[in-house]
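During the no-cost extension, the postdoctoral fellow (Dr. R.K.) reprocessed legacy sequence entries with the updated structure-token encoder. One reprocessed record is reproduced below for audit purposes.
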Amino acid sequence: MSTSDHSAAPGTVPAPDSVPEAAPAAPAASFAVSVPDVPDAELEVEDLNPGQIVSGDPVVTGKVLWESQDGSQIRGIWKITPGVVTDTEADELFVVVSGRATIAVEGGGTLEVGPGSACVLREGDRTTWTVHETLRKAYHISY
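Re-encoded structure tokens follow.
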């Protein structure tokens, strides 16, 4: 779910990995961003594997706000338009900012998510996302 743009959003403190490579590793910078206010124009299109699309014509966009130097952790914004897609998850915590979806976890439960929902997905979970209304979330992923 990584994009090539690792710059911080306007009004945020730049992430520590935006310093030159020779700089010593530093703890993650603290920052705040108003997720609903990040314009769609700042979100980059992320290709969906056609095999993941079950129905509809969903489009995924996102913006990485911070990534650890070793790539093991990513924080950002992600958006998907209506449709049905499958995925194999990483360890993820996210909060839905807008929109609605039903997430069916293979061998597990069904999660109904909407604005304000906090959700945890485990690495390896096989999911089917039915996106009812364009969904925007803020996320933290660990690999």
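The beta strands are 44-46, 53-56, 60-67, 73-80, 83-88, 91-105, 110-113, 118-121, 126-142. The mean pLDDT is 85. The remaining legacy entries will be reprocessed before the final report is submitted.
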